[in-house]
Amino acid sequence: MLFKRLIGTATLAVTLGATLLTGTSVHPTPAHAAGNMVPDYEVKLLMNPSTVLGSDFKLTSTVLSTFAMPTTVTKMNVAFLDTNAKDIYNNGWSPRIRKTEGESDFELSYKKRYAITNNDINAALTQANNEGFDSGDTSYEAQVEWGYQKKTLSITRTKSGSKSGYSGMDLPSISDARSLMINNAPDKFNNWLGSNWGTTTLASSRYYGPVLAKRSVGTWSGMQLYIEVWPIKNAAGTGTEYVVEASFKTTSQATASAKHDELITFLQSKGWFLAQDSLKTQLIMDRY
Predict the structure, then answer these.
(1) CA gap 259, 75 in Å, rounded
(2) Is the model's pTM score more than 0.85?
(3) Mean pLDDT calculated for residue range 205-210
(4) CATH topology for 36-287?
């Protein structure tokens, strides 16, 4: 018994000695990562262009008056940057440059998307957390994009940049756009698949787009409602397909769910609803 106790004491002494040398504890307390990000919600539903657009491809006066929208619109010129092989998009990222009417700078956004399966929003937030996006990182915004049947978690870092020599709604040349996106690239994007992956890939990117969209702002059911008209090249590349998207934002999942269903019912009652999920980014990546 004495021999066993001496052996045990010696073992403990060795353990404690190693502990003092390495600065670790015998029973390390597991580190607790920051919690999941808290998203807001953007409900996005498609409207039937053949019933809501006139022959001039603008929203009809009936649509405008229904949502108390003015005849004036805000223009947005939008393009994505990626390689011919879509290396960035295929890894879940979308670097976008946008010029909005009335704003002097270009908006640069770096968006990471996560699919939401079986309506399990928390699972997508946990996956994002495991990949470095948690509640401690306030420079990124989490949003659940809530379509007709599909939901997607997007986590976005937005910056602004300027280049001289451009006016109005013009986007910069692709070389200027590359330098803007490279110089402002956040670390998580840049080092996603390895050191400087993002900026190295952007260096050989091209434009997907641009698309000149128009946004109208009104109200519905006490909420601010946006309707955007996106003229996107058709699949054959011979003409234009118009994507019309109605959307609203809320911080409440319950509100998003209830108003999502209410807006579908309302648009159906007017004959304006298009029962498809909005896939604007995918269409642009596929067709340009």
Answers:
(1) 27
(2) yes
(3) 98
(4) Hypothetical Protein Pfu-838710-001 (2.40.320)
